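Hi, here's the filled form for the chain we discussed.

Project: internal
Contact: R.S.
Residues: 307
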Amino acid sequence: MSVIWKGVFPAVTTKFNDNDEMDFAAFDKNIEAQLEAGAKGIIIGGSLGEASVLSDTEKIELLKQTVKTVNKRAYVILNIAEQTTKAALLCAENALKYGADGLMMLPPLRYLADKHETLEYFAAVAKSTPLPIMIYNNPYDYKIEVTLDMFEELSKYENIQAVKESTRDVSNVTRMINKFGDRFKLMTGVDTLALESIFMGAHGWVAGLVDAFPRETVAIFNLAKQGRHEEALKIYRWFLPVLELDIHPKLVQYIKLAETQTGLGTENVRAPRLPLVGEERTRILAIIDNAIANRPELPAGSWGVEA
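And the returned structure, exactly as it came back:
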């Protein structure tokens, strides 16, 4: 099994209806917009996908629906965000059984695992599955950093192939390339550092605001890879106030509101999250609506095509 870790991989939201059930009609509409824009992979069950409040049964149903909707037009990547190795192994088993093309893996949740424990956790899953794996390195939010020395250890597992680089230190892209060359594909994972990371050599972009603005996100990536830097910068500068919604504890509510405003989703979240109200909702809406009102014209050949 193989995944080409290149291009824009939307970390999609899980859609819910007013009865707190998964809304596959809304979900499919968003997926179609991502594919039409030129997304290369669809990541489900991540932080934006509200994985922590999905049951195991719902995760399986979400995966089955995604595989059906995508229908081989892009890679389907299931995120593993579990508290135990046993649960992570079961998630990997289900991913293979129900048609995922690859995995994204967080370190163990809740328990602050040390270096040895974290490596053993990743290794156990890697040895259990033929699926390609992308390690999600986000010490800012999840408190465990996967260091260069740890990646040295993980490099012996052939199916650990990529890194979602979310350390918020853009120079880490260069450190990884200097140490490992092309061994690990680097996927920038922080929207507000995306273009900078692409300029530094990142192979792809695991994106959040792409959920609401798929064409613009893909255009930035493609233009940067085509060497059309000024055109990419122009769109990125317009996009930045919206991209900053990705680095807030309420990123799920913020991005779902953006999806609603662009006709690609609903505001429904699962409690304990609640939809935005009052001044906060007014303030976030103003950012989103200003971006929509000033949406740039995208250059020819910047989306829906290979970079």
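Let me know if anything looks off before we file it.
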